Prior knowledge:
Low-confidence stretches: 1-10, 16-46, 90-105, 117-121
CATH class of the domain at 133-346: Alpha Beta
Order of helices and strands: HHHHHHEHEHHEHEHHHEHHEEH
Helix content: 40-55%
Number of strands: 7
Strand content: 5-15%
Amino acid sequence: MGQGRPSALLGLACCLLLLGASGGLGSRGTTPRGPWEEERSPLAEGGAWGRARYEAVKKHLGAVGALSKQYWQYLACKVWQKGCEEEEEEESSPRPGWSLPLVGQDYLEILSAWYCSFGKCCETGDCRIVNNITGLEADLNGQLHGQHLAKEVVVRAVQGFLQSPQPQKALVLSFHGWSGTGKNFVARMLASHLYRDGLKSECVRVFISLFHFPHHKYVDSYKVRLKKQISETVQLCKQSLFIFDEAEKLHFSLLDAIKPFMARNDNKGQVDCRRSIFLFLSNLGGNTINEVALDFWRAGRAREEISMEFLEQRLRLELLEPAENGYARSHLLEENLIDFFVPFLPLEYHHVKLCARDAFLARGLVYTEATLDEVARMMVFVPKEEKLFSAQGCKSVSQRINYFLP
Length: 406
């Protein structure tokens, strides 16, 4: 907070009070006419206001002064939590009377709301951050289809992390599964429920591998830039969210470069990222996840019976297999920096129908069950024999409903 902020606010508070005295901020009733308004011109009596008018103005300004002190005290308590004890002691004493409209509490609400827009006096300590876990859970339950594991892991992991008074390290989640199964959808939902401005928040940074880091020959330059961007974001916003899309295409040295931000903080010249969240979105592991889901279906078991314990270990083993991907060649896995591997299961026919329904509703369009079936049948399903899983998940559903528009 700048040194001039309190004095500037005091000046604004006084201006608001004086504006109220002159009716400048509007009225809920008829504003009493001030003593100087009794005649058209103060020169009516030879240029002199007269003793009576002088005393009236003096009394009026004295009331403003007394009020501004009390209201400044109230503002300091409300915004900076200073002087609250003194305010409580004075609550029992009568406050000076004030007959003009819209003065006092109303002005203070306007002023404190204006100050809070700078993000300094909210429950989280930063008004850019909302951390609406209840809304997140409700939206995941209503809009994320066929992903019982992802719903449970994401809500529990994020909620536990945010409730921890002193986390030892940043929260690192790695989303895995086929394209169109909901990885980006959940990432966007997380941003929208943790931050007032969602993905547009200055607390959120999104990196797309092939867009932001397309050429391996510039990897050293990328490393410097990436570390600088993370450091600057965390300095600006202690609870930051970093999303890495197409993470399997990141050069392994980039992953190793940002490893210190995800490790336990040793306070040795490193910015403190212990309140930050890192999300990695990847198609890696999709085949293993799909094989498990297919095995359960062939065995006549519900997909909801698939547990994290059963799937996570298999997923981790596939990610560790030697391959041309950043995960296998970096040190993220062997140093256990990823807290949760979140599997996104392949989507079945009825899940695609639910996605189609959501797409119609989002655009305010009328639909029928027959229409939803038509949209679902337009998708490609695999494997060849069973035709059980949508090859694209729900990725192109919103575009396909354009065929049904009048």
